[in-house]
Amino acid sequence: MEPLTRTSNEILFEIAKKLPAKDVLNFSFTNRLLYTVCSQDWVWKHLCFRDHGVNFIGPDTTWKKFYYSKDINEVCRHLSAIDEKESLQQYYSVAHKCRIKECNVPNLWMCLAKGCSVVGCGRSGDQKGHAKQHYKMDREHGLVIQIRTLQIWCYICDKWIGIPKSRPAEKAKVNAIAGLICTNRPNLQMEVALNLQMEVALNFRRQRERDFEEEIPNDSKCVLVSKTWMTDWCSFMAGCPLPGPVDNRNLLLANGSVNPDISFPENFLIVSMNTWAYLEQHYGVDGRMLSEGASQILRYRCCVA
Length: 305
Ligand SMILES: [Zn+2]
Ligand SMILES: [Zn+2]
Ligand SMILES: [Zn+2]
Hints:
Blueprint: H1 9-18, H2 21-28, H3 32-38, H4 41-52, H5 63-67, H6 71-74, H7 84-93, E1 108-111, E2 119-121, H8 130-137, E3 143-146, E4 152-154, E5 159-161, H9 168-182, H10 186-213, E6 221-226, H11 227-237, E7 246-247, E8 268-272, H12 273-282, E9 285-286, E10 291-293, H13 294-304
Helix pairs in contact: 2-3, 7-9, 10-12
The chain binds zinc ion (ZN) (3 copies).
C-alpha cells in the first residue's frame, strides 16, 4: 500500500472531506503534508456546509474558526440556499405588487427561494398575509425580503435575519444581498435606509401600544427606558435624526446603582420585556437593562396618580 505521503493532494483532499471534523484536526497533527492539506480553509468551508448547512461566513474569521464557533449554530442556515446575484435579478424582474390580483396592500415581501420571486403582502394589522400564505403552501420557501426596506425575515426560524443583533456571518450575507440590490442606485439606498428607520419606529410604537393593552402580570418584570431617549425617539418621529442606542445611564448614580430619586414619568417610562427585546435588537443598548417587578412599577404609577 502506498504511504499517505505519496498519495496525491487531490486524493488527500477527498479523504479529508469525508472524515469527521475531529479526525481532520487529528490528521493535521500527523505531519507537515497532512497539516497543509487539513488546514486548507476550503476543506473547513466544506465541513461547515456538510455538518452545519452553512455556506456563508463573516469578516475577520476563518472557516475553521467559524466551524468551532457558537455563531455557526445561531445563524439562519436557510440563507445558504440564497444566491445574491439571483436575488438581485428577482428583485428587479417582478412587479412589486401582491400576488393576489385584487389585493392592494402596500407592504410587500418577495420570496427569495430559487426561481420563485413570488410577491405577497405582510400580515400585521389589517394586511392580508399573502406572503406567509405562500410559505405555508411550500415550507421550503421560508425566506422573504421586504421590498421597501430590504430587510429579511425567515418564516422557518420565525425571526428577522441580519439585524444589528444577529451574528456577523448572517449580517454579512444579508448586507451582501441588500448591497447588490442598491449598487449604483444611491437614491434607492437612501430611500431604503429611511423606510427601514420608519419601519422600526412604527414597530416599536405598535409594541408599546400592546404593552398598554395587555395588562402586565404582577410577577413579571418591566424595564425602565430613560425619558431622554424617548424624547429623542419622539423627535425622530417628527423628522429629526435617528436616536442612537437606548441609553439609561442618566437614571444611575455614579456607583452604577439606580438613582432612588428618579420618578415616573418625569425621568423614565416603562416597557415590557418583549418591547425591551425589540429595542435591544433594533436600536442597541448602551449600558445595562434596568428592570423591576410589575408591582413595583404599579407603585410608581400610583405615585403619579
Ligand atoms: Zn432560517
Ligand atoms: Zn417562493
Ligand atoms: Zn396581499
